[in-house]
TrEMBL record:
Protein name listed in UniProt: TonB-dependent receptor
Membrane topology listed for this record: Multi-pass membrane protein
Localisation per UniProt entry: Cell outer membrane
Pfam families on file: Plug, TonB_dep_Rec_b-barrel
Residue stretches making up the TonB-dependent receptor-like beta-barrel domain: 228-741
Annotated source species: Paracraurococcus lichenis
Major subcellular site: membrane
Length: 787
């Protein structure tokens, strides 16, 4: 990914570059050495020299030799709106990134890039590989990304790259690498105390110290919030520490990361309920408890002139517990022979753990509900090593990388369902009776899985001329996935996936201020144990919960073309400095995997859904002088099905007798807005005071479950945010933030639910659409102390 090196004497004022948008961040470096040496007051940016093209980021390529549009964020960028926040600021700074608020929790969003997703929710097909200091942190069981466990204050930089096979499995849509701070690059201390609407209280602190060749760094974060929706409190505790050594030829760093979170996310709510109260929820509670610890060692060694070795190794544990309450998908039996029992629709009677039917008198006249619980325990270990050569080839400057990686993880998964009573306020009170009815899609689950991922990769870049550079590379991935059912044999399976993925690209510096690029890359995504365990339509699993069958799925293969231009405008253009970018991309997926709905309420299964495509345009313009900074980003993402088929969607009002809908070639993929515009402005009124804001627009999107595009989509929206900061005295800064200034009601995620099942609540619901409401107007502020 992107490694930033500042030339001696380069300006370091991070305020001057805060508003460089994600799509334009690279353009500040295109002006080259001459621009960096100008004495005019409009030249205020450091020169970015190197971009890493593998997860290990100790060395990299000059940016004008990267056949793509990599994006770089500094620690200052990630704390511009107040307390450090990784995901919100990635979206604020990029036209190609957006959020799906699937769970209704601000600490657990779905992050989208070019129509691909990195999500904490098991059941969301993942398409972005996320790394922390070169270690892939997509969880082994479902490739999920738990943003709530990442300490934002400890991030030195966040780097984004388009699809590349060099980043291993799951980089079908792109890769994000988080470079963490050390005592060498983050010396001194900072304390950030913040608070605001909906009971939010946060404290973040960091301190780094270097003594000779040794340095240490420690960061902690604590955050509590009541949540703006009913029954949605959250808390997070995070820690990151690093001890490092630097010698003449070698470096060594040992680091620890840990996190503990409790998240309340009550997900989508029927639109008819939200029309009366945007804070409403359907059923609750919906709680997720996460714990993580990771130990890592990484180092570099200069083998000889122009030859170096880079390595890392890690051990990671992850523990997750979930609790989700829902309306039951069974009711009192109609058959006279089964009177007094619960039955599934047109199905067998409900049975309890250990055998025996379940009497309806347990709930009296109440509405039946269920409490689903899961437990996930994963222990993983692995490492990466690569050799980097900068020896010239045939007398031309070149950089060659060869590397190998291995990741191993063992997971114990369990799931259970408790019979409950839906109360008048739509919580579910457990009865202590645990259900086991496999014929109705409800059963205890105990599953052990093992993942073993090997990767062998190489890449070479050579300057064919002083202005033309070529890159070729490839990676071989091998994934071995083993599943062993602990309660029977239905989940047993051994799955093997492998693929050779090539990449190639060209960059041409047509002018000192203009670079053109073109590239092609292939990547693959092996089905996860969660997907493999939930791929049988006859035995669907609880959405995001647990699994009941093990048919084989095909791996997903992506093929990406990308081309574009980036550059700067003449010095002092309109009294300031301007940079711009324009790019096109297309990614075709073969055998894409989707989670589709089952006829049973709250359940679904994974299936290969033919070919899909994500293509679009990325464009941006940024301008700034000493006092004012302006930037505008636009992204068009056209995400469509390329295979005509019938997909299951039994809750859809237009579904046929088999519960399917007709998806045509060219229908849009749900959950992906086609157009996104971001405008950002910041004015430094005085040396001590700055004020700014942004407007973010997202166009409409279709609901999950409406893959045929037959229903009215979720409406597009525009949200206005304001920010300000005042330096009260050296080392003390007061900041404030207003989110959704005009209190715009909006939603970024929606799906369909079973109206027939919901009738038991007697709420008069007639619309099957259910959406997650977005954040209303909110005020936040804080104090930042540096020393």
């Amino acid at each position: 990914m992107t490694t930033v090196h500042k030339r001696p004497g380069a300006a370091t004022d991070h305020h001057a570059r805060v508003l460089a948008p994600l799509g334009l961040a690279v353009a500040v470096s295109i002006g080259g050495p001459a621009a960096a040496q100008e004495t005019a007051p409009t030249t205020i940016l450091p020169t970015v020299e190197a971009v890493g093209t593998t997860p290990l980021t100790s060395t990299g390529l000059p940016r004008d030799r990267i056949a793509g549009n990599p994006r770089t964020f500094s620690a200052a960028d990630l704390s511009r709106d107040g307390a450090p926040n990784l995901v919100d600021n990635l979206v604020r700074l990029s036209g190609s990134m957006s959020l799906n608020d699937t769970q209704g929790n601000p600490f657990a969003p779905d992050l989208q890039y070019r129509g691909f997703t990195a999500s904490p929710l098991v059941g969301t097909p993942q398409g972005i590989a996320v790394y922390q200091n070169g270690v892939r942190i997509n969880e082994a069981f479902g490739d999920t990304v738990n943003w709530d466990l990442i300490p934002s204050i400890a991030i030195r930089g966040a780097d984004l790259l388009g699809s590349s096979p060099l980043f291993g499995l799951n980089a079908t849509g792109g890769a994000l690498n988080l470079r963490m701070k050390t005592g060498f690059d983050a010396q001194g201390g900072r304390v950030d105390v913040s608070g605001g609407s909906f009971g939010r209280v946060g404290v973040a602190a960091e301190y780094g110290k270097q003594v000779g060749n040794v340095a240490a760094y420690l960061a902690i974060e604590s955050l509590n919030e009541d949540g703006w929706r009913r029954y949605s409190p959250s808390r997070a505790r995070r820690l990151y520490g690093d001890v490092g050594f630097q010698g003449e030829r070698a470096t060594l760093n040992l680091s620890i990361g840990a996190g503990s979170t409790a998240l309340g996310g009550n997900g989508p709510t029927p639109v008819q309920l939200l029309s009366a109260n945007r804070r409403d929820v359907f059923t609750y509670p919906d709680r997720t408890y996460n714990r993580m610890t990771m130990l890592q060692a990484r180092g570099t060694y200069e083998i000889a002139a122009n030859w170096s070795l880079e390595t890392n190794a890690y051990v990671r544990t992850f523990r997750q517990r979930t609790l989700n309450a829902d309306i039951a998908e069974f009711e009192r039996c109609d058959d006279d022979d089964l009177a007094g029992l619960f039955c599934f629709e047109d199905g067998p009677p409900l049975t309890a753990r250990g055998g025996g039917t379940v009497g309806a008198d347990l709930l009296g006249d109440g509405v039946p509900g269920v409490v689903n619980r899961t437990g996930t325990n994963t222990t993983g270990a692995g490492g990466t090593a690569q050799i980097v050569s900068t020896e010239p080839i045939l007398g031309r400057p070149a950089r060659v990388v060869f590397g190998v990686s291995y990741d191993h993880a063992d997971t114990d998964f369990s799931g259970s369902t408790e019979l409950g009573l839906v109360t008048p306020d739509r919580t579910v009170a457990g009865t202590g009776v645990f259900l086991d009815s496999p014929a109705g899609g409800i059963a205890d689950v105990r599953l052990k899985t093992t993942n073993a991922y090997w990767g062998l990769y190489g890449s070479g870049t050579i300057d064919l001329t002083p202005r033309l550079a070529a890159t070729i590379g490839a990676r071989f991935n091998d994934a071995q996935i083993r599943l062993r059912d602990q309660l029977g044999t239905a989940l047993n399976g051994d799955h093997s996936y492998s693929r050779f993925n090539p990449t190639a690209g060209l960059t041409w510096r047509a002018l000192d201020s203009l670079t053109a690029y073109a590239s092609y890359a292939e990547a693959n995504r092996a089905p996860t144990p969660a997907e493999l365990s939930c791929a049988d339509p006859l035995l669907p699993c609880t959405l995001g919960a647990f699994f009941l069958a093990d048919p084989k799925l095909k791996q997903v293969v992506s093929r990406t073309w990308e081309t574009g231009l980036r550059g700067t405008l003449p010095a002092a253009w309109l009294g300031g400095r301007a940079s711009w970018n324009l790019g096109l991309f297309r990614t075709d997926l073969s055998d894409d995997i989707l989670l589709v709905q089952s006829e049973i309420q709250g359940r679904g299964y994974f299936q290969n859904a033919g070919d899909t495509r994500r293509q679009g345009i990325e464009a941006g313009l940024a301008w700034r002088n000493e006092r004012l900074a302006l930037s505008l980003d636009y992204a068009m993402i056209d995400a469509t099905f390329r295979t005509a088929q019938r997909l299951p969607s039994p809750n859809h009002p237009d579904a046929d007798a088999n519960g399917t809908i007709p998806v045509e070639r060219g229908d849009r993929l749900p959950g992906i807005p086609r157009h996104r515009i971001r405008f950002d402005a910041e004015w430094r009124a005085t040396e001590a005071w700055r004020i700014g804001g942004n407007v973010v627009f997202n166009s409409d999107q279709y609901l999950r479950g409406d893959e045929a595009n037959l229903l009215k989509p979720i409406a597009g929206y525009a949200v206005v945010n304001l920010r300000t900061a005042v330096t009260l005295m050296p080392g003390i800064e007061l900041y404030g933030l207003v989110r959704n200034l005009f209190d715009q009601p909006f939603s970024s995620f929606g799906t369909l639910y079973n109206l027939q099942t919901a009738q038991a609540l007697n709420l008069g619901l007639t619309d099957p659409r259910t959406v997650t409401p977005g954040l209303p107007r909110a005020f936040y502020g804080g104090l930042r102390f540096t020393f």
